[in-house]
Design brief:
MaoC-like_dom, HotDog_dom_sf, 23% helix, single chain, six-stranded antiparallel sheet, Thiol Ester Dehydrase, Chain A, 3 helices, 142 residues, alpha+beta
């Protein structure tokens, strides 16, 4: 699938559509099964609190994967992603209720690069606080 966003049509400052992700305990169980990360901080509240966490927390890699959806949904082709990096700055606590936790994900084109690539800076917020730092993706456009 070819990228649907054209390099010449994109300007620095272009805001990508926001994505909201709801994370419930069920989400964590499914992610653990798919990814093989069964660390008890992701499913055992007593254990998570015993090691100093506020509650069970979402897998960092789940949060990272959710954030890149902003870019792949925008460009229309996950294969257009050339680079992606983040720093994990704050956990996403996931309460044991029907609501879970929400993470608001957004992105903005920060630079136009050579070879029809752009750098997108991403923001991931939970309860108004950044949970990923220096989240950046480089994507090749058509």
């Amino acid at each position: 699938m070819a990228a649907t966003v054209h390099f010449d049509d994109v300007e620095v400052g272009t805001e990508l559509p926001t994505v909201t992700v709801r994370v419930r305990r069920e989400t964590l169980v499914r992610y653990a099964g798919a990814g093989g990360d069964f660390n008890p901080i992701h499913w055992n509240e007593r254990f998570a609190r015993a090691v100093g966490l506020p509650n069970v927390i979402a897998h960092g890699m789940f949060t990272m994967a959710s954030a890149i959806r902003v870019v792949t949904d925008w460009v229309g082709d996950p294969g257009a992603l050339a680079e992606y990096s983040v720093r994990f700055t704050r956990p996403v606590p996931v309460p044991d209720d029907d609501e879970g936790a929400t993470v608001e994900l957004s992105g903005k084109v920060a630079a136009k690069l050579d070879d029809k690539k752009v750098r997108v800076d991403l923001v991931a917020l939970h309860n108004g606080q950044k949970v990923l730092g220096k989240a950046q993706a480089v994507v090749r456009l058509s």
